[in-house]
């Protein structure tokens, strides 16, 4: 049996939370930048810039978290080389974390899309 480094396995298990944290920072960073520079009237693709940017960040984050969930369910994520008992826990935890991250990403992204950036 080949052992993997703890940090690599742990980072893989936490990857969904890292994606959520990056999305959280991106959403509030976008809104903060838009408000600080008074760019709320700028349009991208015929829509307000904050909406387009937050929608893009949310879409990317959702895709990444869904990929982590799929990898955990298919057994190709973290823990694929561990012995059977820890591998099941690692896959379960990673899948559960990814599902939670999907909800958290939606929870952060939807209000930012529904409320004006500098309102």
Write down the overall geometry: elongated
Give the helices and strands as they follow along the chain.
HEEHH
Please report the total strand number as a whole number: 2
Domains counted in the coordinates: how many?
1
CA-CA gap between termini: 57 Å
Main sheet properties:
2 strands, antiparallel
Q: How would you describe the overall organization of this protein?
A:
The mean pLDDT is 86. The protein contains 3 helices and 2 strands; from the N terminus they run αββαα. β1 and β2 form a beta hairpin. The longest helix has 31 residues. The chain has a two-stranded antiparallel sheet. The protein has one domain. It is mainly alpha-helical and 119 residues long. Helix content is 74%, strand content 3%. Keywords: Membrane, Transmembrane, Transmembrane helix. This is Integral membrane protein. It comes from Azospirillum isscasi.
SSE layout and pairing:
Elements: H1 6-36, E1 43-44, E2 47-48, H2 49-74, H3 84-114
Helix pairs in contact: 1-2, 1-3, 2-3
């Amino acid at each position: 049996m080949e052992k993997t480094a703890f940090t690599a396995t742990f980072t893989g298990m936490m990857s969904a939370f890292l994606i959520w944290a990056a999305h959280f920072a991106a959403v509030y960073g976008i809104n903060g930048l838009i408000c600080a520079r008074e760019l709320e009237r700028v349009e991208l693709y015929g829509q307000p810039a904050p909406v387009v940017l937050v929608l893009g960040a949310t879409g990317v984050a959702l895709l990444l978290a869904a990929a982590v969930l799929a990898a955990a369910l298919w057994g190709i994520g973290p823990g694929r080389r561990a012995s059977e008992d820890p591998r099941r826990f690692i896959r379960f935890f990673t899948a559960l974390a990814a599902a939670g991250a999907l909800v958290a990403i939606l929870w952060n992204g939807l209000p930012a899309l529904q409320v004006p950036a500098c309102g």
